[in-house]
């Protein structure tokens, strides 16, 4: 009996030792075992293809964001330390519909192609970023609502809103149509301190390589001069979601987006409802202790020899931003009397429309069709 007990104890000890020493013995895997392990890894982390686009499940600590020289010593933040009181308590049905596309410990990253980089360089040269158009042959038309703290005591620390999402058709490769929230600081100072963060959805062939509706992000810390990019075409934006990633074709009916500054880390978080998407680290921004201007807008751009494209759902007033909340330092919504809202509309009916109401939100949209006068 004593011998049997000793044998059992020895066996348990051997098993325990084996589990503790697993990391040390892993290097001695046979060639066949190593091959089998690689096959298993490829199976778990296999590329995800959709609409002709390839996405990879990338180790969260090895994603492209950390190639940025300012992020070498950055501490990864998986979720916000500051809970938005304005968030819904229950996940929206649309958020729940998003499937988990990657295993735990990895994040969904759109694979960047040579063609993506060529188009990105062209966009950087012409500044076709959805806020302005520097080229003579392209004209942009914007409608939106702006909240400004310029020369006022209030400081903005974030924005949240529900966006209607539509699958617009008939937009040419040379045209764009974008709906977005924009949060910025330094817009009236030197460009080198003009910081901008953007997120929303767009149809933008030059960025995405097709005419589908895509979820997108953009950032710059020098007024669109040399820093920043769309999506993950450069390092900087840190992806934390296994479900939603910049550049993904978005087919659901709404986005419940929030961009806000985390009170503890000072990173600028991006959420869809209560689901973290990622964030812009404080290290890549040089003037974003808070925000001086927030915009909710739709922008359509087109060569001057073509009629302007539609926005929203293609109908006048057919799309909206709802549950709009401009956030203070405690991440509570500011009352409407200190938001200083102003609407702007480059071209009105019958082409586009934009109406802001504190209770109903911002209503916008239009079929487009405007052509500049020919002289």
Can you put this structure into words, describing what you see?
- The protein is an alpha+beta fold and 375 residues long.
- It has one domain.
- It has six helices and 18 strands.
- The chain has helices at 2-20, 22-25, 31-44, 93-97, 114-126, 205-208; strands at 48-50, 53-59, 106-110, 138-148, 158-164, 176-185, 195-204, 214-220, 229-230, 238-239, 254-261, 268-272, 275-280, 293-303, 319-327, 341-345, 353-357, 361-365.
- The strands form three sheets. An eight-stranded antiparallel beta sheet has the order 10-13-12-11-5-15-18-17, with no helix packed on it. A seven-stranded antiparallel beta sheet has the order 9-8-7-6-14-4-16. A three-stranded antiparallel beta sheet has the order 1-2-3, with no helix packed on it.
- The chain is globular.
- It starts with a helix and ends in a 10-residue tail after the last strand.
Strand content: 25-35%
Total domains: 1
Given the structure, what is the number of helices? 6
Q: Which radius of gyration do the C-alpha atoms yield?
A: 24 Å
> How does the helix and strand content classify structurally?
alpha+beta
Task: Report the principal-axis shape.
Answer: globular
Output the helix-strand order: HHHEEHEHEEEEHEEEEEEEEEEE
Helix-residue proportion: 10-25%
Q: State the major sheet.
A: 8 strands, antiparallel
In what order do the strands lie side by side in the largest sheet?
10-13-12-11-5-15-18-17
In whole angstroms, the N-to-C terminal distance is 106 Å
Q: Overall mean pLDDT score?
A: 85
**What's the total number of strands?**
18
Q: Which parts are unreliable, with pLDDT below 50 for 5 consecutive residues or more?
A: 1-26, 128-136
């Amino acid at each position: 009996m004593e011998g049997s007990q000793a044998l059992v104890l020895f066996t348990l000890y051997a098993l325990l030792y084996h589990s503790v020493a697993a990391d040390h013995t892993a290097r001695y895997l046979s060639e066949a075992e190593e091959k089998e392990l690689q096959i298993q890894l490829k199976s778990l982390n296999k590329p995800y293809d959709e609409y002709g686009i390839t996405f990879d499940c990338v180790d969260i600590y090895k994603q492209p964001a950390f190639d940025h020289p300012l992020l070498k010593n950055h501490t990864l933040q998986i979720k916000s330390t500051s809970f938005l009181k304005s968030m819904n308590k229950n996940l929206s049905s649309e958020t729940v519909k998003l499937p988990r596309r990657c295993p735990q410990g990895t994040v969904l990253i759109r694979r960047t192609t040579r063609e993506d980089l060529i188009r990105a360089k062209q966009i950087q040269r012409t500044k076709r970023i959805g806020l302005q158009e520097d080229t003579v042959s392209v004209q942009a038309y914007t409608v939106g609502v702006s909240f400004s703290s310029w020369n006022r005591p209030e400081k903005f620390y974030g924005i949240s809103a529900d966006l209607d999402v539509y699958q617009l058709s008939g937009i040419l490769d040379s045209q764009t149509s974008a709906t977005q929230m924009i949060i910025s600081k330094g817009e009236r100072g030197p460009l080198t301190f003009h910081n901008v963060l953007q997120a929303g959805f767009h149809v933008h062939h030059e960025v995405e390589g097709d005419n589908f509706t895509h979820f997108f992000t953009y950032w710059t810390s020098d007024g669109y001069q040399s820093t920043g990019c769309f999506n993950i075409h450069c390092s900087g934006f840190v992806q934390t979601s296994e479900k939603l990633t910049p550049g993904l074709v978005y087919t659901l009916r709404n986005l419940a987006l929030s961009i806000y500054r985390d009170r503890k880390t000072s990173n600028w978080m991006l959420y869809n409802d209560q689901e973290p998407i990622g964030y812009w680290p404080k290290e890549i921004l040089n003037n974003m202790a808070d925000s001086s201007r927030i915009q909710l807008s739709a922008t359509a751009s087109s060569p001057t020899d073509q009629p302007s494209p539609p926005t929203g759902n293609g109908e006048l007033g057919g799309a909206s931003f709802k549950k709009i909340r401009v956030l203070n330092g405690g991440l509570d919504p500011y009352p409407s009397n200190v938001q200083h809202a102003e609407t702007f509309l480059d071209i009105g009916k019958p082409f586009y429309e934009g109406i802001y109401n504190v209770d109903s939100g911002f209503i916008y949209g239009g079929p487009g069709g405007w052509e500049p006068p020919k002289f």
